[in-house]
Write a structure and sequence with these properties.
Blueprint lengths: L4 H34 L2 H4 L1 H30 L15 E8 L3 E7 L2 H4 L2 E5 L6 E8 L3 E10 L13 E14 L10 E8 L4 E4 L5 E2 L1
Antiparallel strand pairs: 1-2, 1-8, 1-9, 2-3, 3-4, 4-5, 5-6, 6-7, 7-8
């Protein structure tokens, strides 16, 4: 049987058209998948994804740096503790008293430690040992001493007065009042004792301690 061209071509055209449509549709799906995949920033731009992660790390680093800064700032806070007071040396320019009672030193420097004057037992000038000066409202100072009468030397004291040298060193303090640590240093004095046992400083000398 001879097929007419018009009859035979029409079904084939429909088949070819259907196949072409299927191919085009499949290609579109594949193309759509490829296009959607190419639009993923993480896939095409791995550096961007890495940057995002490093951004998180950076924020963590910033937090660590911030805490470190806060710690170093607190550790650098200056201390408000005031320095402790120091012991001082003092000079008294007036000495009055009697060996049988007490001796007073006055016109003393370092008022915070001495209160300007103090007293101690007159027996200090009769030998050696330990004695304590009681200051005018500022505590006490204890010292060891030796007193001597240089008979071999010509006395510089007036009349029949006896020249006496007092030497010693401070061993303890019981200070009173804020900022007072007491007295330091050596005890040195040149004194004159008259026949009635009255005591005074040798002219031009001072009682140092």
């Amino acid at each position: 049987m001879v097929e007419l061209p018009g009859w035979t071509m029409k079904p084939r055209s429909r088949i070819i058209a259907a196949v072409a449509a299927g191919v085009i549709a499949a290609g579109g799906i594949v193309l759509g998948l490829e296009l959607s995949g190419s639009q993923s920033p993480a896939a095409n731009h791995p550096a961007t994804a890495s940057t995002g992660n490093s951004g998180l790390s950076a924020s963590g680093t910033d937090a660590a740096v911030g805490s470190t800064g806060a710690g170093s700032s607190s550790s650098s806070t200056p201390s408000s503790t005031a320095p402790a007071p120091l012991k001082v040396a003092a000079i008294c320019t007036v000495v009055r008293g009697n060996l049988s009672s007490t001796i007073t030193v006055s016109a003393c420097s370092q008022l915070q430690a001495t209160g300007g004057s103090g007293t101690f037992a007159g027996t200090v000038l009769a030998g050696s040992g330990s004695a304590t000066i009681t200051w005018n409202g500022t505590g006490t100072t204890t010292f060891v001493y030796v007193s001597s009468h240089p008979a071999s030397q010509r006395s510089k004291c007036p009349g029949d007065d006896t020249e006496t040298t007092l030497r010693g060193s401070v061993t303890a303090n019981s200070p009173l009042g804020a900022g007072n640590a007491g007295i330091r240093g050596s005890i040195r004095a040149k004194l004159c004792i008259d026949p009635a046992l009255n005591v005074s400083l040798l002219a031009g000398r001072a009682f140092q301690l």
